[in-house]
Automatic annotation (TrEMBL):
HAMAP family xrefs: P5C_reductase
Domain Pyrroline-5-carboxylate reductase catalytic N-terminal span(s) in chain numbering: 4-99
UniProt similarity note: Belongs to the pyrroline-5-carboxylate reductase family.
Organism: Methanoculleus chikugoensis
Keyword NADP on entry: yes
Record's keyword annotation contains Cytoplasm: yes
EC number annotated for this UniProt entry: 1.5.1.2
Principal localisation: cytoplasm
Function: Catalyzes the reduction of 1-pyrroline-5-carboxylate (PCA) to L-proline.
Lineage: Archaea, Methanobacteriati, Methanobacteriota, Stenosarchaea group, Methanomicrobia
Gene name in the database record: proC
Name of the featured protein: Pyrroline-5-carboxylate reductase
Entry's localization field: Cytoplasm
Residue ranges of every copy of the Pyrroline-5-carboxylate reductase dimerisation domain listed in the record: 160-261
Reaction equation(s) it catalyzes: L-proline + NADP(+) = (S)-1-pyrroline-5-carboxylate + NADPH + 2 H(+); L-proline + NAD(+) = (S)-1-pyrroline-5-carboxylate + NADH + 2 H(+)
Length: 266
């Protein structure tokens, strides 16, 4: 059966099930899900009546040709070693695991392997999923995966060497931007009589509006700063402070994330 099997019903697994089914790119009889805990499997069955639920990873691997590994990187190799013995080699493995390379997976499953880096913002149909196909992935399988993820947002094909940095932007990015919104809102609350709710609402709306402005006008961030920061005015004082101090903060954060990326699946 040419169904999509999703192993792991956590943040990503549940987002993919919701996205694929709500968008209509897959029908309820085309998805099979399993997860380690009985509670997760029951939650999926309750959210999507009629969906295929496999009791074990091996049962899912026997049923599906496309198998999405949506477990944590630390669990990915254990799951692979569990399911590979019941696979016939014709399947297509789609691994979401940050930091686990194609060569490592192909070393355990010498067939079609694609690395996919989703983003939580696909929950609202936005953001970019990164896709990196292994050399053995045929045109049909490649287009199928690209089509699935196109239904829940943008997709970008990237080389494996580009994945770590691209992951930081597209996939860690929502967490990073959320933290920035939180900090900016928090600073205004500490300095004023705004309530946390008011500050967070304003900061969130402004972040969304700024992204929309940049996207729709095609201006660079520098252009926009120039339009907002009136000479001798308010914004330029804040931007100057950012430009003095943030490069170091961001360089450190990116270096730490890249280091962790290389170690996360070990
Ligand atoms: N959270 C995110 O925004 C992103 C996560 N990823 C990648 O997606 C993968 C999943 O991440 P999350 O969903 O955030 O993790 P999570 O911890 O929310 O979900 C993992 C799921 O796997 C299940 N699981 C654990 N061991 C299992 C086993 N042996 N057999 C079956 N199920 C098992 C857990 O019960 C849980 O439901 C990771 O490899 C991560 O690197 C990639 C891009 C973005
Ligand atoms: O933080 C993580 O490890 C995962 C991978 C990319 C986004 N979230």
């Amino acid at each position: 059966m040419d169904c999509i099997g999703i192993i792991g019903y956590g943040h990503m697994g549940s987002m993919l099930v919701n996205g694929f089914l709500s968008s209509g790119v897959l029908g309820i009889d085309e998805v099979v899900v399993t997860s380690r805990s009985r509670e997760s499997r029951d939650a999926c069955a309750a959210a999507w009546p009629g969906i295929g639920i496999a009791a074990t990873n091996r049962e899912l691997a026997r049923q599906c040709r496309t198998i999405v590994l949506a477990v944590r990187p630390q669990e990915t190799k254990e799951v692979l070693s569990e399911i590979v013995p019941v696979m016939d080699g014709d399947e297509h493995i789609v691994s979401l695991a940050a930091g686990i390379g194609l060569a490592e997976i192909e070393g355990m499953f010498p067939g079609s392997v694609t690395r996919v880096v989703p983003t939580i913002t696909s929950t609202v149909g936005q953001g970019t999923t990164l896709i990196c196909h292994g050399r053995q992935v045929g045109m049909h399988d490649a287009l199928r995966v690209e089509g699935l993820f196109s239904a829940i947002g943008n997709v970008m094909l990237v080389g494996e060497e580009e994945l770590p940095a691209a992951t930081i932007l597209s996939s860690c990015g929502p967490g990073l931007f959320a933290a920035i919104i939180e900090e900016l809102a928090g600073a205004t609350v500490r300095a004023s009589g705004l309530t946390p709710e008011q500050a967070l609402a304003l900061a969130t709306e402004t972040a969304a509006a700024t992204a929309a402005y940049l996207r729709e006008t095609g201006e660079t961030p520098g252009d926009l700063v120039g339009r907002v920061a009136t000479g001798g005015g308010v914004t330029e004082v804040g931007v100057r402070g950012f430009r003095e101090r943030l490069p170091e903060v961001f360089d450190e954060a990116v270096a730490a994330m890249l280091e962790r990326y290389g170690a996360v699946g070990k």
